[in-house]
Each structure stands twice: as structure tokens, then as C-alpha cells.
Write a structure and sequence with these properties.
This protein has two domains: about 70 residues, no CATH class; about 210 residues, Orthogonal Bundle (MetI-like fold), CATH 1.10.3720.10. By secondary structure, it is mainly α. The radius of gyration is 24 Å and the shape is globular.
Length: about 300
């Protein structure tokens, strides 16, 4: 196990170097000269030269690449061009609010999706199964903006069950008060595609020979579904969940924007609007690193769920 983990970590290095090189090329050759962005609408030649010297972009490309690698290793991307705040501080302070919403959302989405998929697969082909699939299709056809506006207006503004916007300093206040409505909206948006996907995973296993053997031995349908089928369907479910985790940090920007949550997603949108290259580069690199780490964790979870899988 340890040898496999070390080998995978070693194999991540060339991939990570490729990501770093691609980001460096995009922001230095394609993205234009940042000095012109920072200098304003009427820049002087002296001002631009001074900014280029402060940013280090007047150095040869190999020197700039070395500086970029040092920034990644030391977790120090300098300061935001828009706010002057340290980029490392921006990431660490915005990560908590994003996780406060996304971790409960991911857990609830996965558990509810698995439970509903098993129930629907249990009555596959019935009227209930068809009705649920139609409801999922309708739910997937509705834009997330509609969910946000309707839930925010109905549950927050009209009924007053939740705050319309806001974020506090207490973790439990944020989790139980400010995050509840965004989590409900996230579930409303994601549960339909999740249920359809998990249902397909379960139905793929239901038709396997081991299921027919278990039924022939006299095992109840509930035990067959919740023990045997679920254990084998867990492999693609784990793949789906772990593959989506890094993207969730960026993909939740609409929820964070509409509810005033100071998370990573909202920060990315603000950075793009302001052409805040240090923030964009830092988040891009670390999301790529998180993706590779989650891929490794996925392989380790495979063996934990199914000991027959050998990590080589």
C-alpha cells in the first residue's frame, strides 16, 4: 500500500509540471502584459516599466518560470492586484465558507441519491419508477437560476424561514442558519441527475449473475439490493463523487454569489472580472493538484470497498 502511494505521488510530478507549464504559457504569452492592466487607461512608458520590474515580468522566461515554481512550492503568490490582500490569505479564508456548504451538500446528495436509486431500482419498470424518471427529467430541465430565485423568494423572503443573504463568524451559525437554504437549493438541482446516474449503476449490477445466485439461495430482495448490489455499485458511485469534488469548489459560484457567501467560487468570478491574475493562477494550480490527490484517494477507496481490487 505504501509503495503504491509513493509511486502514485511520484507519477503526479510530471502531470503537475505539465499543468504548471500550461498555466505559465497561458498567462505570460496568451494573457497579455499585466503591466498594461495595472497601469490603468492612460499608462506612461515609465510607469509600465516600473510595474514590469515590480512584477518580475521583465526577466527572461526561464527566470519567470522559476519564480512561478517557487510561488507554488512556498504557497506565496504575492498579493492580489485588486485588493492588495495576500493570495494565500484569500485562499485559506475563502476555503472554509465553501466547504461549509459543499461538504454537507455532497454527503446529503450522495446518501439520498443512493437510497432513492436502490428504492427505484427495487420497483424498476413500475409506475413509480417511470414517474420518478419523468420528475428527474423535468428537474434537470430547470435552470439553477430558477431554483435560486424561487427558493430565495418563497422560503426566505415570503416565509422568513431562512436569511436571504449573509455570513457570520461562527461555524455553527453559518452551517445551521446561512448554509441551510443554499444546501437545499443545491440538493434540488443535483438530486435529479444524481438519481438517474446512480439508478443506472444499480440496474447494471441487478442484471449480473451473482444477483441471480443470491436470489436462488433464498436471500430477500432487500438484502440483495442493500448489501450485494450496493457494494458493487459503490465503485462507480465513488468515482463520480470523488471526480466532482474539486469542480464543486468552482462550480458553486452562483450559490455563493446570490447568498453572499465569501467562498472560493465567488472569489474566482471576482478575480476574472478584475483580471486578478495572481488569484486566478493560484486557484487554477491548486485545483489541479487537488484533482490528482482525489484521484489517488479514489483508488484507495476502491480497495476499501472491494478487497478483491489490487493496487499495483
Amino acid at each position: 500500500m505504501l509503495a503504491y502511494i509513493l509511486r502514485r505521488l511520484w507519477q503526479m510530478l510530471p502531470t503537475m509540471l505539465g499543468v504548471v507549464l500550461l498555466v505559465f504559457i497561458l498567462f505570460n504569452w496568451v494573457g497579455g502584459d499585466p503591466a498594461y492592466i495595472l497601469a490603468g487607461k492612460m499608462p506612461s512608458a515609465e510607469g509600465i516599466a516600473n510595474i514590469r520590474r515590480q512584477l518580475g515580468v521583465d526577466q527572461p522566461y526561464h527566470v519567470q518560470l522559476g519564480i512561478f515554481l517557487k510561488q507554488i512550492v512556498t504557497f506565496d503568490f504575492g498579493q492580489s492586484w485588486a485588493t492588495g490582500e495576500a493570495v494565500s490569505s484569500i485562499i485559506t479564508t475563502r476555503l472554509g465558507p465553501s466547504l461549509t456548504v459543499l461538504v454537507p451538500l455532497t454527503i446529503l446528495e450522495t446518501l439520498i441519491g443512493i437510497a432513492l436509486a436502490l428504492v427505484v431500482a427495487f420497483v424498476r419498470g413500475s409506475l413509480l419508477d417511470r414517474a420518478v424518471m419523468i420528475a428527474c427529467t423535468v428537474g434537470m430541465s430547470i435552470s439553477i437560476l430558477v431554483y435560486i430565485i424561487v427558493f430565495q423568494y418563497g422560503l426566505a423572503y415570503q416565509l422568513g424561514w431562512f436569511p436571504v443573504q449573509g455570513w457570520g463568524n461562527s461555524f455553527w451559525e453559518n452551517l445551521l442558519r446561512y448554509s441551510t437554504l443554499p444546501i437545499l437549493i443545491g440538493l434540488a438541482v443535483t438530486i435529479a441527475p444524481t438519481l438517474r446516474l446512480y439508478r443506472s449503476f444499480v440496474l447494471d449490477e441487478v442484471s449480473q449473475d451473482y444477483v441471480r445466485t443470491a436470489r436462488a439461495k433464498g436471500l430477500g430482495e432487500g438484502r440483495v439490493m442493500w448489501v450485494h448490489v450496493l457494494r458493487n455499485a459503490a465503485i462507480p458511485i465513488i468515482t463520480h463523487v470523488m471526480a466532482n469534488l474539486p469542480a464543486l469548489l468552482i462550480g458553486a459560484f452562483l450559490l455563493e454569489r446570490f447568498f453572499g457567501i465569501p467562498g472560493i467560487g465567488r472569489e474566482v468570478i471576482l478575480a476574472v472580472e478584475r483580471s486578478d491574475f495572481p488569484v486566478i493562477k493560484a486557484i487554477t494550480v491548486y485545483v489541479a493538484a487537488a484533482t490528482m490527490v482525489f484521484n489517488l484517494l479514489t483508488d484507495l477507496l476502491y480497495q476499501a470497498v472491494d478487497p478483491r481490487i489490487q493496487l499495483k
